[in-house]
Each structure stands twice: as structure tokens, then as C-alpha cells.
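Figure 6 in text form: structure in, sequence out.
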């Protein structure tokens, strides 16, 4: 519980009413309102919290954060007038939970691809180094050894600070988190004090939300603009927009690259399905991670670790023992020599990267059969390009459902087919049912062939018309691999 005057510290906010009112809880969902709450009236894309102010007052709420105060002003209610309630809620949430991000080392990872892998690998590395760590990611949230369900890549500002407060209580020394473009744009990370930021890459994604690629770039760049002079900004020089991200940052700029001279330089020597041999700053390292995109991720992990922890030898020893992240280039082998790779690739660049990696290391006489779909109610413009890249790099492609959400699955597949018209269309099958698509891929495969199942990765559900049903690519292909249905 906090007095209002203790948590409203932003100069742009004006308190109208009793500054000593006691706040027991922060909320922005009017359905949860009760006496003792501070209700934040947030303006969103679908709803405006200002429309629910009277409703929460009727439920006993005496303190409201808003941009527009209702008239006439209700009696016995304290208002915090803000020019931007999203930003102010972040500051208020941090203060309410005693500014937890200041009590450990916090590193944010942003970019189109690689966020989950880098954040998770950093968490694993620093755990191996003997520290208690927190993780906030698409796949899972970890507070010490305790797992908390992850529903968003980056949670809302209240949830973020509550989780971080629990991390403080658990004694976490380091926290690694994914920072999505949505969370930057919606100011969910306002009030957090980052000790470092990592930029992976930026490619075609989320234009359903950001509308233009320039807006998407500006959102990512905004994270680095906000870093303090005491933080580091570690950027991927192999992405042509890497240095754009840090044009206006106050942070210490450091770079990593597989192709250019950088502070943290890597080179892939050999890559196999068993792992990758690479040089990191002229030191040879064997890693169980596979492919150049994973080598780039590992280089970011190494760079960030060196900036946070001084013993390079320890870092290299433990890096070599790190294993792949759930749903990222995970593979399942059948009893008769077929390999299935499950990967979260759901953008054109990610699809290309994983296919290129497979093609670099698969035997010349093997086929690559790719099963891929695209999510519904998301950026439609990437669908044809994902299909085109899949067809260019594969021997056969099966277009299928991903999470169609409220769209018709066949309509999504039709959008994808626009990228493979003409001579490549003979390589493509369309099977709406994802389970049947995976079964067909298994039936088409011979000994030594590779099946790539792209798009859902770690997910254990399929979202159709608002209903989430259990579905795991890895479980489904493993089930078919146990059946005696394959060519001998």
C-alpha cells in the first residue's frame, strides 16, 4: 500500500484531490475494479478507458489516472491528470513496486528475430555462472527457479513491475527480457531502468500494427534512445540498420558481427546437425547451437556477458554447454533416418535463415520438405514473401494453417500462394489441417530427408475462431515418427 503522493512523481502529472489517498492496487481493467484501486484510463486501439470511469467509481474506486477529467468532477474522487496515461502508468507502477528494475542488472533484447533465444541463453549462461536470474520472454517467465506463464512477449507495465518486484524478493542479480516493438510504442517499459540493450536485426513484421516499416524502425530505435549514459547498447553490425538504432543513444555503444570488424567478432568454421565450430574474438568455441543465425545470437550473448561480467574464460566455457531454446531449431529423428526440425520462424527473414541453415548442412542427396503457414489477423503483406522464400529453398512445400485466429485458414493460404505463382507452383501443396499437413510431409519423406515445420515453434496450442486447442508441432511429428508409415 502506498500514498498517492509517493507514487506520482512525474512533473507532467497534476493531482486534483487528496494526495494522501491510500493505493492498494493498480489496474487498467475496469472489470477488476474495487475499493482501494488506482484505475488507469488508457486509450487503446479498440477501447478507451475513459469510457469506464463512472463504472469504476460506482465500484468504490477513489483514484483515477486519466488524460481527460470528466465533468462535472465527481465528489470524493482524486484524479491524476496526465498528458500520456500509458507513460505515466509505467512511472507510477515502478514507484508502487519500489522501482525493482534499479535493484538488479536489467538487459533488454529487441529486434525482429532472435529475441527469445538471446534472452533465454543469457539467463542460462548467468545461471551457470552462479547467479540467480529472472527471465521475461515469449516462451516463459522465470523468477529464480519458479516459472510464471508468459502471455505476451512483453507484459503490461503493472505486470512487469510486479514480476520484477518478485524477482527482487527472490534475490535475482540479473534479469533478461524481450522488448517488443508494441511494448516500446505503448510505453509499457516506461519507468524501467535498463543496464543494457541488445539489437538483433529488423525485418518485415508487425506492419498490421505499425502500418509502415519506418514506424516499426522508429519504435525499436525508441528503446535505445531511452537508455541512460550508464547503460550499454550492443548492436548487430550485420544488419544494415544496426547503427541507425544507436544514432541518438546516450549509452555506451558496442557492436557484434559475423561479417565485419566489430567489438565482438565471430566466424563460423563448420556447422553440422550436431553443432557449430566457430571463432569468437579469435578463440575457438564449439557450440551445440546450429547455423549462422544461431552463431549471431551466441555472439550477442557473449558480447553482453563480457559487458556485464569480467571473466571471459568462464563465459566461453559455459557458452559451449548451452543448448537450443525450446521451439528454436529443435529436431526430432525418426527410427528410419528422417529428421524433423521445429522452428518458430514466422517472418520472411526467419524462414529464409532457417532454410539456408538447413541447406548448408544437409546431405546433397536429401530432400527438404517445408511445412509453413502464417498467422491470422496479423500482417498480411508478409504472407506471399514467406511462401516464396520457402519454395525457393525447399524441394517441396506444404502450405497450411498456423494460428488462423478469426480469419479463414484457406484465405490465408490463398494470400501465401500469391508468392509462388508460375513455375514453382508444382512444388506446393495446400493442406488446411496442420496435423494432416505434418502427416503428409512425413509420408513424402525418405531416409535422410529433412522436414522443416515452421511457424509455431514452442507453442502448444492452435488459435481458431477465438478457441485455443492443444497442438504441438513437436508432439505431432514425434507421434507420426512412431508409426510404421514410412518408406523403408
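Output sequence:
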Amino acid at each position: 500500500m502506498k500514498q498517492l503522493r509517493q507514487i506520482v512523481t512525474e512533473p507532467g502529472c497534476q493531482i486534483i484531490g487528496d494526495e494522501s489517498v491510500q493505493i492498494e492496487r493498480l489496474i487498467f481493467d475496469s472489470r477488476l475494479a474495487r475499493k482501494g484501486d488506482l484505475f488507469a484510463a488508457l486509450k487503446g486501439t479498440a477501447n478507451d478507458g475513459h469510457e469506464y470511469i463512472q463504472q469504476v467509481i460506482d465500484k468504490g474506486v477513489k483514484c483515477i489516472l486519466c488524460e481527460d477529467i470528466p465533468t462535472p468532477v465527481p465528489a470524493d474522487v482524486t484524479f491524476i491528470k496526465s498528458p500520456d496515461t500509458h507513460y505515466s502508468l509505467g512511472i507510477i507502477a515502478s514507484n508502487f513496486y519500489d522501482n525493482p528494475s534499479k535493484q538488479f542488472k536489467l538487459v533488454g533484447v529487441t529486434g525482429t528475430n532472435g529475441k527469445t533465444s538471446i534472452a533465454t541463453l543469457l539467463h542460462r549462461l548467468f545461471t551457470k555462472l552462479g547467479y540467480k536470474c529472472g527471465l521475461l520472454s515469449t516462451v516463459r517467465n522465470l523468477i529464480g527457479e519458479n516459472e510464471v506463464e508468459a502471455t505476451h512477449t512483453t507484459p503490461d507495465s503493472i505486470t512487469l513491475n510486479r514480476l520484477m518486484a518478485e524477482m527482487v524478493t527472490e534475490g535475482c542479480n540479473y534479469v533478461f527480457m524481450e522488448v517488443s516493438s508494441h511494448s516500446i510504442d505503448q510505453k509499457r517499459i516506461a519507468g524501467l531502468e535498463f543496464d543494457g540493450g541488445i539489437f538483433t536485426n529488423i525485418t518485415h513484421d508487425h506492419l498490421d500494427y505499425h502500418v509502415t516499416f519506418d514506424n516499426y524502425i522508429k519504435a525499436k530505435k525508441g528503446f535505445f534512445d531511452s537508455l541512460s549514459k550508464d547503460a550499454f547498447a550492443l548492436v548487430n553490425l550485420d544488419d544494415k540498420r544496426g547503427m541507425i538504432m544507436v544514432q541518438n543513444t546516450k549509452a555506451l555503444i558496442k557492436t557484434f558481427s559475423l561479417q565485419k570488424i566489430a567489438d565482438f567478432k565471430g566466424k563460423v568454421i563448420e556447422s553440422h546437425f550436431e553443432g557449430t565450430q566457430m571463432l569468437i574474438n579469435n578463440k575457438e568455441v564449439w557450440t551445440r547451437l546450429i547455423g549462422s543465425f544461431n552463431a549471431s545470437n551466441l555472439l550477442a550473448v557473449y558480447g553482453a556477458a563480457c559487458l556485464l561480467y569480467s571473466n571471459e574464460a568462464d563465459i566461453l566455457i559455459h557458452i559451449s554447454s548451452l543448448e537450443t531454446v525450446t521451439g528454436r531449431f529443435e529436431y526430432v529423428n525418426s527410427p528410419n533416418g528422417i529428421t524433423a526440425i521445429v522452428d518458430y520462424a514466422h517472418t520472411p527473414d526467419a524462414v529464409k535463415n532457417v532454410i539456408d541453415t538447413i541447406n548448408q548442412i544437409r546431405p546433397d542427396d536429401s530432400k527438404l520438405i517445408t511445412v509453413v503457414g502464417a498467422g491470422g489477423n496479423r500482417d498480411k503483406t508478409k504472407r506471399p514473401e514467406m511462401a516464396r522464400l520457402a519454395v525457393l529453398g525447399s524441394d517441396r512445400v506444404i502450405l497450411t494453417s498456423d494460428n488462423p485466429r478469426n480469419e479463414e485458414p484457406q484465405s490465408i493460404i490463398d494470400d501465401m500462394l500469391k508468392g509462388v505463382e508460375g513455375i514453382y507452383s508444382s512444388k506446393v501443396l495446400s493442406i488446411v489441417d496442420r496435423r494432416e499437413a505434418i502427416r503428409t510431409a512425413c509420408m513424402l519423406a525418405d531416409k535422410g530427408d529433412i522436414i522443416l515445420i515452421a511457424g509455431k515453434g514452442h507453442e502448444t496450442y492452435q488459435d481458431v475462431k477465438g478457441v485455443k486447442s492443444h497442438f504441438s508441432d513437436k508432439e505431432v511429428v514425434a507421434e507420426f515418427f512412431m508409426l510404421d508409415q514410412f518408406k523403408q
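Caption detail: Residues 484-488 have pLDDT under 50 and may be disordered.
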